[in-house]
């Protein structure tokens, strides 16, 4: 019974992630006219699902085992189970509230804040692995600036190598294949170079590099052939934007894949921890105890069950299709004006930064990164093009996320502890 409730809660949190975070990814292509809302949802569904299932295991263990000092729960693992359950519920509640008010909050901040709150209410400050929290916090500060820098560079490539030329459309025809090569190569490398552990297909560097180069080259050649006979109209700037739409769509797909790979852990991480702890209690009740709880959690318990990743991916998909439009408007229209070329710069920068974090096992905030990359494009146009009021409201919602989710977790733990312990 308790396991079923936990899996339903996992689905609910994943639904929230799809409803709130995917608006970050698809806000720019919809607002720029590169995709209709219907097609944006379809692409998001496909690539979020693939990212979660194929590469979604790297960050899960960070969320489930690295935030709290598990050894302090050795005496009664049920307390840790209740803490993980309440952290999921608190995170889900806060994200739901934020989505209703169209606030693009960080689901990563929400779940980690809730886990920290769980540690504080169960054991105290000593339960928190502050060194790990420090590293995660640094990555939260660095990643938006890194993403913003990448988007600023790509925007300026467009600006100085394409738009500032006498024949911008001709210049785009020359440069677009290189853009496509970089996107496909990066996505392929991140996926297949020791990245398909969930499917037990781990390629080493050389074969992964060869396949990625071949895939990128194929994409570049295809793009060059498609654009070879395209003719410029009287308005070449408009032509550049029109023919940047496919690039924007490719970048948005890449962005969704990266998001699914990283943020599925926000829903799945605590669930994985609960399942491993439940298994440990069963072993402990028998005669064959496989070492300490922490040894079992980190080594002996086995890999992440594929069905958990599937539940997380399915929840994200439903979230996109039901409430994904709420946050799209904030990201795509209200920070700065987005066109297909600017959207490509933002999307590619966001996806590259998030996917890098996923491969390093670092739970980055895709919300922070996408706002940083959109702002980077705005700075490239001139800082006056940024909507400071909207950015301030976004920053305030970020500031609230950690303490609110932690506080909610503390409250839920105190209210539900006696009920949950009977279900375990």
Q: Could you walk me through the main structural features you see in this protein, from its secondary elements to its overall organization?
A:
The protein is mainly α and 424 residues long. It has one domain. It is 79% helix and 0% strand. Helix 5 runs parallel beside helix 9, helix 6 packs antiparallel against helix 13 and helix 13 packs antiparallel against helix 14. It is elongated and about 75 Å long. It starts with a helix and ends with a helix. The mean pLDDT is 80.
Question: Topology of this structure?
Answer:
Blueprint lengths: L1 H30 L5 H19 L4 H6 L11 H24 L6 H16 L7 H34 L4 H25 L12 H24 L7 H50 L7 H8 L5 H18 L1 H10 L5 H20 L6 H16 L6 H36 L1
Give a summary of the structure in a few sentences.
This protein is mainly alpha-helical. Helix content is 79%, strand content 0%. It is built from 15 helices and no strands.
Structural features:
0% strand; single chain; 424 residues; mainly alpha; 15 helices
Element-level helix/strand string? HHHHHHHHHHHHHHH
Q: Which regions have little confidence, pLDDT < 50, spanning 5+ residues?
A: none
Average pLDDT metric: 80
Number of strands: 0
Largest sheet: none
Tally of separate domains: 1
> What would you call the quaternary organization?
single chain
Structure annotation, total helices: 15
SSE class: mainly alpha
Shape descriptor reads: elongated
Beta fraction of the residues? under 5%
Helical residue percent?
A: over 70%
CA-atom Rg in angstroms: 22 Å
Distance between the termini: 8 Å
């Amino acid at each position: 019974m308790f396991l079923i409730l936990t899996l339903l809660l996992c689905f609910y949190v994943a639904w929230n992630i799809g409803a709130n975070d995917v608006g970050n990814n698809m806000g720019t292509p919809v607002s720029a006219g590169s995709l209709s809302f219907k097609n944006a949802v379809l692409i998001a569904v496909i690539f979020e699902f693939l990212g979660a299932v194929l590469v979604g295991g790297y960050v899960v263990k960070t969320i489930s085992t690295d935030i709290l000092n598990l050894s302090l729960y050795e005496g009664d693992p049920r307390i840790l189970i209740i803490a993980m359950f309440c952290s999921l519920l608190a995170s889900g509640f806060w994200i739901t509230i934020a989505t209703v008010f169209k606030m693009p909050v960080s689901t990563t901040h929400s779940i980690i804040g809730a886990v920290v709150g769980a540690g504080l209410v169960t054991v105290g400050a000593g339960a928190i692995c502050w060194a790990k929290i420090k590293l995660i916090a640094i990555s939260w500060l660095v990643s938006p600036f890194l993403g913003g820098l990448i988007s600023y560079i790509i925007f300026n490539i467009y600006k100085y190598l394409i738009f500032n030329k006498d024949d911008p459309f001709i210049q785009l025809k020359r440069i677009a294949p290189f853009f496509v090569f970089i996107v496909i190569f990066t996505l392929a490398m991140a996926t297949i170079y020791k990245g398909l552990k969930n499917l037990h297909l781990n390629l080493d560097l050389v074969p992964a590099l060869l396949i990625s180069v071949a895939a990128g080259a194929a994409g570049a050649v295809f793009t060059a052939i498609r654009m070879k006979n395209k003719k410029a109209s009287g308005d070449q700037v408009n032509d550049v934007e029109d023919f940047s739409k496919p690039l924007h769509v490719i970048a948005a797909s890449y962005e969704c894949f990266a998001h699914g790979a990283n943020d599925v852990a926000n829903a799945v991480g605590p669930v994985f921890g609960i399942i491993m702890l439940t298994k440990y209690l069963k072993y402990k009740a028998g005669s064959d105890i496989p070492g300490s709880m922490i040894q079992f959690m980190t080594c002996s318990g086995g890999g992440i069950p594929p069905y958990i990743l599937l539940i997380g991916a399915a929840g994200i998909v439903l979230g996109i299709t039901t409430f994904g439009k709420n946050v799209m408007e904030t990201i795509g229209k209200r920070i700065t004006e987005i066109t297909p070329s600017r959207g490509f710069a933002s999307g590619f920068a966001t996806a590259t930064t998030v996917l890098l974090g996923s491969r390093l096992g670092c739970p980055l905030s895709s919300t922070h990164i996408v706002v940083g990359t959109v702002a980077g494009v705005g700075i490239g146009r001139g800082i006056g093009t940024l909507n400071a009021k909207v950015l301030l409201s976004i920053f305030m919602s970020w500031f609230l996320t950690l303490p609110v989710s932690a506080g909610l977790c503390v409250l839920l733990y105190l209210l539900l502890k006696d009920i949950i312990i009977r279900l375990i």
